[in-house]
Amino acid sequence: MDLKYATLYDHPELVDQTLEIIENSFAYTSNFSFKTDFYPLMSEKNWPNNLIAIERKNNQVIGHLGFLKRSLHINGKNFPIGMIGGIAVSSSFRKSGIAGTLLSRCIELNTSDVGLFLLWSNLSDYYRKWDFTENGKVFVTQAGNNPTSPDQLGFLKISPDERSAYTPQLSLLYNTHINNHFISLVRDEESWDDLLCITSSDLFVHRSLSGQVDGYFFKGKGFDLQDIIHEYVLPKSIPLESFCNLGEIWHASIEGLALLPHKTLFMAMLRPGSQNLFKQLSQQITPGNFPATTDAQIAALFNSSTPWFISGLDSI
Ligand SMILES: CC(C)(COP(=O)(O)OP(=O)(O)OC[C@H]1O[C@@H](n2cnc3c(N)ncnc32)[C@H](O)[C@@H]1OP(=O)(O)O)[C@@H](O)C(=O)NCCC(=O)NCCS
Fold first, then answer.
1. What pLDDT, in 10s, does the model give residues 157-177?
2. Which of 7, 66, 84, 285 could form a disulfide with 119, with the two C-beta atoms 3.0–4.6 Å apart?
3. Atom of ligand 1 at shortest distance to CA of 127?
4. Which atom in ligand 1 lies closest to the alpha carbon of residue 121?
5. 5: number of Cβ within 10 Å
6. Pocket test for ligand 1, best of 54, 95, 127, 271 (most atoms within 8 A of CB)
7. How far apart are the first and last CA of the chain?
8. Is 88 a pocket residue for ligand 1 (Cβ < 6 Å)?
9. What is the distance between the alpha carbons of residues 128 and 176, in angstroms, rounded to a whole number?
10. Which of the listed residues 1, 89, 90, 127 should we mutate to test ligand 1's pocket, taking the one with most ligand atoms within 8 A of CB?
């Protein structure tokens, strides 16, 4: 097989074909769009990071892997990390090392720029071959005993055209309640603009009696997170137990919620990037503790007193 490896930036004419392969590989139905659900990964400005494998004879895309650089906020400092997603190989070309080659290329191209690579998958044995370690589960609770609706709790759904007006308030709540309490992704104005382009995710906001936005949540994210609430900041007036009655919810931790039926949605898999950046990042999490082996180093990242939370919206 005569293959060429390139990027969507080199071949913008192959974007639609690439999306078709991804959507077929993930069994998307026609009412969903990977491009919308993963807007930051697939937007034109990220095309230099969308690696593709092309079969030369028919100039046909047969594989894709997307990389998105973000920053991880850890106890007041930011560190560059790389998120990987949209890994897909056309079914008739599988098991000949194409995904492996795309992954190796991605790691080689970006290692020096990031402290960690992160991807979400249930194929842990496969990614172990590239030194990814399974870490961090995503828990989803089922609805509590008293099903309720967002408007009963005082939340209002905001239409996609209106949401950019809310960026300053959302950003403030996110920084205060998520960045300051969890190891989580940094969101500057540009990231917020990109994330709000994920129009397959519904935004609901809550206002205090004085009219200030004091809480919000995002529900659904197209095909992947249908009907699941995957990021929330609650106003003081709404206890978590009442909020849990809204339906399926992705939480940072199951602590205090274990009585509700819950399931693990998927695993986060991590791999170190540059040794130096990885060490700096690790030491910010667990000062003075830098175990000898990579697996132990990665495991130590989760023994910190600061919990992790990477929301569904940020899951590339
Ligand atoms: C997962 C997926 C991307 C793998 O693509 P791929 O190109 O077939 O991957 P590779 O060829 O690199 O590796 C697949 C297997 O083939 C084996 N393989 C690799 N090169 C090979 C070769 N030359 N000859 C025979 N087998 C080979 C690998 O060892 C691997 O085996 P394993 O499953 O036991 O680990 C592809 O199956 C896919 O698109 N699946 C649907 C979408 C999906 O699940 N994406 C991943 C989400 S995180």
1. 999 999 999 999 999 999 999
2. 84
3. 35
4. 48
5. 14
6. 95
7. 31
8. yes
9. 35
10. 89
From the CB of 266, is ligand 1 less than 6 Å away?
no
Domain spans in the chain, listed from the N-terminal domain onward: 3-135+268-314, 140-263
Token representation of residue 160: 């996609």
For the question of whether the overall pTM of this predicted structure is more than 0.85, the answer is: yes
Nearest residue (by CA) to ligand 1, atom 41, is 25
Q: What are phi and psi of 264, to 5 degrees?
A: -90, 125
Best CATH choice for the domain 3-135+268-314 from the list 3.20.20.150, 3.30.70.330, 3.40.1650.10, 3.40.630.30: 3.40.630.30
Q: In this predicted structure, what is the pLDDT of residue 289?
A: 67
Which of 3.40.630, 3.40.50, 2.60.40, 2.40.70 is the CATH number of 140-263? 3.40.630
Q: How far is the CA of 68 from the centre of ligand 1 (A)?
A: 22
How many angstroms separate the CA atoms of 218 and 230, rounded?
A: 6
Reading phi first (left if > 0) and then psi (alpha if -120 to 50, else beta), residue 151 is in: alpha
Strand 3-7, strand 50-55: pairing: antiparallel
Please tell me if the domain spanning 3-135+268-314 has the same topology as the one spanning 140-263: yes
Residue whose CA is closest, atom 20 of ligand 1? 97
> Which structure tokens are listed for 134?
């399974």
Q: Given 3-state DSSP classes, what are the helix, strand and coil percentages for the chain, each rounded to the nearest 5?
A: 35, 30, 35
Q: Where are the alpha helices (DSSP H) in the chain?
A: 15-25, 34-37, 39-42, 98-110, 124-128, 167-174, 189-195, 240-243, 275-285, 294-301
Asked if residue 157 lies in contact with residue 150, where contact means CB atoms within 8 angstroms, the answer is yes
138 SS3 class: strand
Could you tell me if the CB of 96 is within 6 A of ligand 1? yes
**pLDDT averaged over 10-residue windows placed end to end, the chain, 316 residues:** 96 98 96 97 98 96 98 96 97 96 98 96 88 81 87 97 96 96 95 96 97 97 92 95 92 77 80 94 84 81 82 89
